[in-house]
Design brief:
about 240 residues, alpha/beta, Rossmann fold, 2 domains, six-stranded mixed sheet, 10 strands, binds adenosine-5'-diphosphate, binds magnesium ion
Length: about 240
């Protein structure tokens, strides 16, 4: 793994009125790294994620991608840099089928013939070839997540940002997703926001734990899972602690 830092944040802060959802976060991910962001509900994971993806403009602080300051950039500009984004709520057109979604995603970069090949491959990688002609509005939440992932992979990103990709998935879908994320990390750095500890255990190497808008712990997965303090914030035992 390279030591080159593909994405960093410095003192990243996001306030909503009186609520500081992200509080001065210094964070870095290296090229080729697979990093999980973990934390209880309300910890600030999605807000942090949205500050990386341009869905929110941070109140202060900085986001850098490949030595370029991208703070406050719009999502489409960030995607154009080769960053693949899967938001927590799948962003799909219910009347279109899965195939159209993935083909259109591939068409952003490639001419029609190659786009079709890449779209087919992405559907196959995500194990949803047999859903290609189904309207996405009729799919389960887990299946919709896989369609969105296939779209993101079709864009051939060098950095992949996934917010709660395993939500709503069956055990089988989740196993597939875990394999996919590990495979994707061979060609891209990957940041996965996930609430579900079992999924994190399946995929993670290094884990960053968020609590109350700040980084609470950062360590290899086994160490995090064995950390009493992390277990306590999950159980809410520290909810009133400083
Ligand atoms: P997580 O993804 O870790 O569950 P969030 O980032 O969604 O946490 O939320 C962090 C905190 O910020 C919570 O207290 C939440 O209520 C608050 N928050 C998130 N989004 C908004 C918003 N758009 N307006 C006001 N408060 C928000
Ligand atoms: Mg969230």
């Amino acid at each position: 793994m390279s030591e080159y830092r593909i994405l960093t944040t410095e003192a990243l802060t996001m306030r909503f009125g009186g609520v500081t959802a992200v509080d001065g976060v210094d964070f870095a991910v290296r090229d080729g790294e697979l990093r999980c962001l973990l934390g209880p509900n309300g910890a600030g994971k999605s807000t942090f994620f949205k500050c990386l993806t341009g869905q929110l403009t941070p109140t202060s602080g900085r986001v850098t991608f490949r030595d370029q300051d991208i703070t406050g950039w719009q999502t489409h500009q960030i995607v154009a840099l080769g960053i693949g984004i899967k938001t927590q709520v799948p962003n799909l057109y219910n009347g279109l089928d899965a195939w159209e979604h993935v083909r259109i995603a591939a068409r952003r970069k490639h001419l029609p013939k190659l786009a079709r090949e890449i779209a087919e491959k992405s559907l196959e990688r995500c194990g949803i070839t047999d859903l290609a002609r189904r309207e996405v509005g009729l799919l389960s939440h887990g299946q919709r997540q896989l369609v969105e992932l296939a779209m993101v992979l079709a864009g051939e990103p060098t950095l992949l940002l996934l917010d709660e990709p395993a939500a709503g998935m069956t055990g089988e879908e989740r196993d597939r997703l875990a394999r996919l994320v590990i495979e994707a990390s061979k060609t891209a750095a990957v940041i996965v926001v996930e609430h579900d500890m079992a999924f994190i255990r399946q995929i993670a190497r290094d884990v960053t734990v968020f609590h109350r808008g700040a980084i609470f712990a950062e360590a290899p997965v086994a160490e995090i899972m064995a950390d009493r303090r992390v277990q306590e914030i999950y159980l809410g035992k520290q909810s009133d602690a400083a």
